[in-house]
Inverse folding.
């Protein structure tokens, strides 16, 4: 059998022939790597004459034919160039791994296919026998934890790690999601909303939040090569790279959301395009306003001159303006080597206020699992309709101050205290005023409910309600994001900002009157006939 | 006379003095070229000591003064660095030309000004005498065919090559175009729609689809130089680079749409910005959703490290994520040299379904000339209002499967069969559901027609009709594009996606009621008085 | 005292130790600079063994600890690498300074912290004693004038230099701004518009136009370092980098708008991202349409190969397609060294028509201070509601022709006269038709006023009025911008173009009818009861 052959019989030199001859995988790439990255100094840090484990060699032997892009991508990664043992020889502040005890069986090899896809097999529903090896299809944060425990622990307790359950286990958000994404059919002229299909949730909300990936059994697939058909686990809701993915080993999260596919690149994660996959207009326009900001302007102009691979990241030397990662999670030092900010994979750790209004902005929640929040109206939301906070579930002033100081410390790398003070004072006012604009919209919606023009049973499905959603979810949020990120003035003025906040209230007002008239008219008609 | 002087008397050394002295055109550039492109290995392929034809030298002699940017652009191109004869010396798979018999009179020279602007003079209405030479203003695909016959033949039968006639010869689309682009004047409070001016069509639809370029006669223009005034053909609807341009030699198409101006660069055509000139939101947001997708994220992060000039294009080595050209038309090989996909300039060749709904998505049309389609309601469209397909004009299941397999083969370079299966299964569901959302909107519009609230004579000019257009042209299309391209989740959820699909139905429903009331009221008023 | 120590006692070698040891500021950077910029030839132009003034050394001594990013940014600038004396040794056409007599006390040093932050102290409200030196917080155009007098003079008389007063001193625009940006509260169901807070104006309009920066007194701030607390001027409306900023020395303008922060980079100003901070959709979508245009496509593809630092800028050699700066203000020469366009910092100098409709497009105003304009309806606007021009305040045909020729000369670097003629003829038609579409919207709004449906007192606050604003401010402008910049066809057709121009008129028409009915109904109700 082929798999036995692969496991036992194929001499190493044959595997190497396949991989490194005609395609000259490694050599070509490594020379390219030097030129491309300005990371020349890094090459000294890589393991010379690195060894791939016997199992990984077997993976490569076939997959350099069957899916060569994956193999090439991995060969471009640090994982293929350094062993855990050598990674630990760097000074602590320069390390990219947080374990101090990598398992002995992998510590002397490159971090290859088998090293990652074979972790914790007993937990993996998706573990299967493949060409003589036990393989997991999905590599989860619990597997990455082997070498990156600190990052995993920070991540799984963050809002991002909990993104799936936060949307699916909260009945209010779940209703919103179903109302938007559910198919609508017309019956006797009426719009009938059906529950959203999981596929459509996957295409929309769960594309970013993550899906629940489960094993439905085994299936045969064609490799399209001489290897013929192979049996593989049949995964539901796959492919999926949303940040809060529920994995077939019971863990949550997807590291590939930001370190995509097999290059696991810190450079990719540090560039704003990664965050820009999800943090987009109209609801969370972080990437949009960044691009229009002074920081974004400098990034776009200078990115080719910057160093995105250095650890720790040196402000002023490696970069001269921040990307998303700079402010929110990277380990930063000054040119003199002083730590400006510690690395964190809890992306809320430097945030005191949550600009993303639900429906008002509020202090960051204490727990990344926000489905546990209950407000005074008994709703699972951080504020009531009138803006009263569910303070028991939100961080207190001391914690807010601490986080504010962490962020301010980043700003101070390049800005004076007075400059920073002025910036955030303006943000405080913006938060206050946009929350007021949300409250004004809420009052108009309540008027529509009270007058029986629309009904409060599902607060998301009628037209005045939809205008109300726009007010807080699109426009108030947008103005706050623009304000926080050194300004995206046209965005805050016209694009999705004050122009819309004001226009929207006027539309709600006029629509109440039009619908009221329709209603009266219909009532009168009913009386007349 | 100057032209005689240029033709007969100017010694070559004078021409060369003008071109290569003070401005040192060629030398400076070629050294620059090496550094910029990562294309060092290419230099070996260029013709050493290349010769420019006598005619091209004469062109350059003046035009390096009159329009130096054009000359410089050409000097940066491959056309200036290799002769057709030398281009043919490469192995077939590495060739950028598809002829095997270039005409003898051009085969030993660089592909210069005169070589391109003098082809097929007898067919060119725009051929004129210029400084002693017969020159065509417009270089058409029929001229490029001299060296690139396969590309031209594929292109002229594609939907893209037929883009002008497909929009202008189809009465339904022509009505839509006129309704959108026609000037509206107010007379007695009524909106009067006038036919769109050709200039405005040129600024909008025909900017991408192409204009009809004809010669209206000759005119004198000032060169603004010592050369004084010159007589040139007076071209209508020019400049024009739309993909389906109708040329003054009777041919269709414009190669410069994607290989712009005089550098004719494969790099430009392979980068997504080129497609992003036309394939944009809100109607065809391919570029928008690509940028938000995982593929787009990797492209934006890594493009500086990739090789956009290699032929064939090596997956994994030259690029580690696809651009538009990768999936849709480039010649691709594996690192081991196996062909993954053949080059095509019929951009539908790897597409089985047409996501672009008219008004429903449908199998790709058999012919690039879609003006020949007639559906069961006798309308020149691929589906009826209720979604019944004009199957006789659309490819059958076998052809769909064949094209699907071509595309899947590209995906398999980097993804497992199971991964690809999951991806396209989700797309199938998205197509089904978005078509249903279009049908729901159609039902509401028909209700409005049946009730006499709006009239079906022109189905594009009234407000409920315009909401209906948004449903299929903007929102259903957007969700499908997002789904096809590995996800642009925020786009599919909020930006132009399910949020709008649902909101839009609600707006149609409410507007029907408001307008119905207005109508009744007006009728009642009429009765009362 | 620390400041005395810094001023008098710290030996130079200590300062240098701090700056150049552990962080090795200068050496590392300059080597990096060479690699990054393709500006190798420039290095010969820099001052070898450049000296920093004693005062600047003192600044750096602390600030390389307190705000290292600023110091590093400056070290990357030309200011740190060349003295004014050496800058003057270049041929006039290559100079980046326009003075011929730099003050003696700064001419032999790098242009450092103190050189810029100590100019004209007697005029600066924000001058204060800091560590033994008199420092201005804000560096204004009047300070930059020391070395760059021509640029400053051009700038302060431009519309951009006057951007603050043009919006704040014009009662019509001020009303518009207040209506959009003012908080709206609901009282008894009515929307009450309050005056906009200055903070919100700062976040929106004044973010681009500039704020008025004044000194409110002194305040203590923590440096967060061993230097403890320091007293600094308390500035209002700060930070602020809008183009028409009113400075604490009484001057107008902010050079950092386009040459940001301490690198003062010509490269940044020449790339389109800088203009793209403010010239954005929906009102002034210059950056948006550029990105979709052929020029933008070529820029995005080729920017890595271009030279953005060369002075003068050589068309065809340094760049092969224009950025915003190329057409609007840079000093351009041909590869042969002929001047194509002179440098200008009056960004209207090559513009004959103002595409930005107020409310119709019109010839450029004579003065950059547009608050002096009065039209025939006695309103401070360049045209009346029906489109009659305030010609006394606008440039005449001769001046228009002269500016048109300046621009055409830029185009001719790469395009034939006939090509350019065709392009601008299409623009002329677009201007005419979009102004007509604006007039149609105006007529409908006047109908609504005449019928008492909305009231003309504030022409910006009701729903039909807001649709009217969209017509000229968003859609007519967008189509004109797209037309001017070699085409952004999808933008002009669908995005914010003709689709919206037409849809919007229909919405206005329907809304007039709906509101008229509501009004009548209410009147009838009143009569009945």
């Amino acid at each position: 059998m082929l798999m036995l052959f692969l496991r036992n019989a194929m001499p190493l030199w044959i595997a190497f022939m396949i991989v490194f001859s005609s395609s000259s995988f490694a050599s070509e790439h490594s020379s390219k790597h030097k030129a491309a990255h300005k990371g020349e100094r890094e090459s000294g840090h890589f393991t010379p004459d690195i060894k791939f484990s016997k199992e990984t060699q077997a993976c490569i032997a076939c997959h350099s034919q069957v899916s060569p892009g994956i193999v090439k991508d991995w060969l471009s990664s640090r994982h293929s160039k350094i062993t855990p043992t050598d990674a630990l020889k760097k000074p602590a502040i320069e390390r990219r791994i947080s374990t101090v005890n990598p398992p002995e069986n992998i510590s002397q090899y490159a971090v290859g296919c088998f090293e990652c896809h074979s972790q914790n097999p007993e937990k993996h529903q998706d573990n299967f026998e493949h060409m003589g090896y036990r393989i997991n299809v999905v590599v989860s944060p619990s597997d990455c934890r082997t070498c990156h425990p600190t990052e995993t622990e920070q991540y799984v307790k963050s809002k991002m790690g909990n993104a799936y359950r936060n949307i699916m286990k909260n009945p209010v958000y779940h209703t919103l999601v179903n109302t938007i994404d559910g198919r609508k059919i017309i019956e006797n002229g009426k719009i009938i909303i059906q529950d959203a299909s999981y596929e459509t949730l996957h295409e929309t909300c769960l594309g970013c939040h993550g899906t629940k990936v489960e094993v439905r059994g085994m299936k045969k697939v064609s490799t399209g090569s001489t290897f013929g058909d192979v049996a593989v686990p049949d995964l539901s809701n796959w492919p999926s790279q949303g940040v809060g993915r529920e994995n077939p080993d019971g863990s949550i999260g997807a590291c590939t959301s930001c370190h995509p596919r097999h290059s696991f690149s810190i450079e990719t994660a540090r560039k704003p395009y990664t965050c820009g996959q999800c943090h987009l207009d109209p609801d969370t326009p972080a990437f949009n306003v960044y691009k229009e900001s002074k920081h974004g302007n400098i990034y776009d102009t200078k990115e080719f001159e910057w160093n995105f691979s250095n650890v720790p990241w040196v402000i002023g030397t490696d970069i001269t303006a921040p990307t998303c990662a700079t402010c929110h999670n990277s380990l930063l030092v000054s040119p003199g080597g002083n730590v400006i900010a510690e690395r964190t994979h809890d992306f809320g750790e430097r945030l005191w206020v949550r600009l993303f209004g639900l429906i008002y902005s509020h202090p960051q929640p204490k727990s990344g699992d926000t489905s546990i929040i209950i407000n005074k109206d008994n709703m699972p939301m951080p504020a009531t309709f009138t803006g009263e906070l569910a303070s028991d579930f939100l961080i207190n002033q001391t914690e807010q101050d601490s986080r504010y100081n962490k962020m301010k410390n980043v700003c101070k790398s390049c800005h004076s205290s007075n400059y920073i003070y002025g910036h955030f004072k303006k943000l405080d006012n913006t938060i206050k005023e946009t929350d007021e604009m949300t409250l004004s919209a809420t009052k108009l919606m309540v008027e529509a409910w009270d007058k029986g023009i629309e009904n409060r049973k599902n607060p998301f499905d009628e037209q005045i309600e939809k205008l109300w959603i726009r007010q807080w979810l699109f426009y108030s949020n947008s103005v706050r994001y623009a304000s926080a990120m050194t300004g995206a003035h046209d965005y805050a003025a016209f694009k999705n900002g004050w122009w819309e906040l004001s226009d929207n209230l006027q539309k709600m007002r006029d629509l109440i009157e039009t619908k009221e008239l329709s209603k009266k008219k219909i009532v009168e008609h009913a009386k007349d006939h």
Notes: The longest strand of chain B covers residues 215-222. Residues 417-450 of chain B form the longest helix (34 residues). DSSP finds 25 helices and eleven strands in chain B. Chain B touches chain C through 85 residues (CB under 8 Å).
